[in-house]
Design brief:
It is built from seven helices and twelve strands. By secondary structure, the protein is an alpha/beta fold. The structure holds zinc ion.
Length: 290
């Protein structure tokens, strides 16, 4: 007996409904569009928002890459990738440059994205004003009235308390000079990659039933004060202990034996590509020396 399932798990009606929400999100950059979030074969909070976006836009020619905290190998990323592959048969990759759709949690890859790619980010809390206002009815009104004093107050309080803004991730951004948006828990380092991104960026929150977007070539500004400008995590003077890369987002690791700290690329496929490149250069050099 052969089991017949729909292409990309969903029936066509479901895909259409989600695509309509995506179109609206693209038309109003940074605006949170409600959608009928489906029950998925994975638990809410594990990327169901991103997964629903991926499944509704994916076509047979697409090549999919899934990352979790910068790693293609993490269990969650592998499982999502398997699920999409089994229900669509599309090719998967770890190479950022080869992918047409990249679904991710917590990171935007180091390799710059292009117009041919769509970045899908998994979002836990889509509402940047949620901490100041628990009522959805009221936050919708605040967005409509362009009243973002709550977001500014949050940053101001952090400066009063810590002498600087203390958002480690999910630092709020202003999109297309209109809507304040939660960029999802990406490090501040990745906020800058959203500004004038060549790739379409889609953000999906399954539990909160919201989809929003940053269309290609859109202005995305991280909220900051004139006397406290926005700063990204600094890796000055540091390099990856594997591939020697600098100017990338790195994890700080501790050598258990010596207690020394060292750094490693958070984006594992970038690190691997750099290592392969070094090896190739080395091979050519050896060849020349002969
Ligand atoms: Zn590296």
């Amino acid at each position: 007996m052969q089991l017949k399932t729909h292409f990309a798990l969903f029936d066509e009606g479901s895909k259409k409904e989600i695509r309509r929400a995506i179109l609206k999100a693209v038309a109003i950059p940074g605006y949170q569009v409600p959608f009928a979030s489906r029950e998925m074969p994975i638990a809410r909070g594990w990327g169901t928002g991103g997964l629903q976006l991926t499944l509704s836009i994916i076509g047979k020619q697409d090549v999919l890459k899934v990352i979790d905290q910068g790693a293609d190998e993490s269990v969650n990323a592998v499982n999502i990738q398997k699920l999409v592959n089994k229900t669509t048969g599309v090719a998967t990759t770890i190479e950022t440059g080869e992918a047409t759709i990249i679904q991710s949690r917590h990171r935007i890859p180091e390799v710059p994205l292009t117009e041919k790619q769509i970045m899908v980010l998994q979002v836990p809390i889509p509402e940047p004003l949620r901490w100041v206002e628990p009522s959805e009815y009221k936050t919708k009104k605040l967005h409509a009235e362009n009243d973002y004093s709550g977001a500014w107050l949050m940053l101001f309080e952090q400066i009063m308390k810590y002498g600087k803004t203390a958002t480690n991730a999910d630092h709020p951004v202003l999109v297309h000079d209109r809507y304040v948006m939660a960029p999802s828990p990406i490090p501040r380092f990745d906020n800058t990659k959203m500004h004038q991104s060549e790739a379409l960026i889609l953000l999906g929150a399954g539990r909160e039933k919201k989809v929003y977007a940053v269309p290609p070539y859109t202005n995305v500004t991280s909220l900051a004060f004139d006397d406290h400008p926005f700063e990204v995590e600094s890796f000055d003077g540091k390099h990856c202990h594997l591939c020697q890369a600098t100017n990338v987002f790195m994890d700080e690791l501790v050598n258990q034996d010596t207690g020394e700290t060292y750094y490693q690329c958070n984006d594992t496929s970038y690190c691997l590509a750099e290592l392969n490149e070094h090896e190739h250069v080395l091979e050519v050099a050896v060849e020349h020396a002969r």
